[in-house]
Amino acid sequence: MSKIKDIVQHLESIAPLAYQESYDNAGLIVGDANKNVSNVLITLDVTEEVIEEAISKKCELIVAHHPIIFKGLKKLTGSNYVERTVIKAIKNDIAIYASHTNLDNVKNGVNAKIAEKLELQNTEILSPKNGVLGKLSVFVPQENANDLKSALHGAGAGQIGEYKDCAFETAGKGSFLPSDKANPSIGKKGELETVDEHKIEVIFPLYLKNKILSAMKKAHPYEEVAYYLHQLENTFDDLGSGMIGEIVEPMDPKDFFDYLKDKMDLSVIKHTKEINRKIKRVAICGGAGSFLISQAKNKQADIYISSDIKYHEFFDADERLIIADIGHYESERFTNEIFYAILKENFANIALHLGQTVTNPIKYY
Question: Any known ligand binding at 119?
Fold first, then answer.
């Protein structure tokens, strides 16, 4: 029998909470992580109606994209839909977990699903993040180098794009003089010792720092480990906002709008004026994405597809590209398929239910 914490740990191995934006509130929001789970409801939003659906399907856990709580609740009196939803979940012992901007930011997350729907090729992150990688340099006796590298790689160090177990290694001489209180694994107290050592260097995501340092110290033979840590300014191409790619055959704007409606199951598209060229390069961002308009132009996109674009922000197209607002719900509705695929592959003993409640608060007449 799986527990809620097992599902949480697996989801966070794919979309770590460290990758959520500062304003976000992803993670386990309601419920006991140690509770057993046999039925999971997957949904975009959590509302009172979604809780009712979870009750009817005997679900102990709801996995959602949008957190029901963004800011701290000071009261639980049922005065608004957030409070009522949380109260109903607690009363019925239903846990709520959300994977939001952390799932937006990872390479195989929300925007990859949109790119898949649009059959985009040669995709890459539209606005990669920097400052999220670190470098570890550690010195170890030559005969222990391979064991130490294996431990570091096992903890998550050394992954660069599609290459894993990456490391750089140089040979040299290390020297040290153990004090009378030391307990050296090599050499003697009070005597200067020189050892053939290797310096191992690996890159790692900074959020894994404590895990990697713990693995390093556990695998290292020395009582005191000599190492250096550096934060890198390198961009991390597997992490960031939005995505850009290319359609197989360039299309006239009107033909592309029809294509977009068909692939994303849209009834309406709000957009700027058509450009005088075919659509080839397509930039996308699920959810509110006006902050990426300039990046889409800089990457020479022909069209930028997102939602929640404000009136004056449409002017930023400046006839250099088309800005298409397809709606927040519409841009993220297929996120449920991501959760379903992740959980189905790893939790065969759990019944997964794709939510049938339409939570979109916006209607079109």
Answer: no
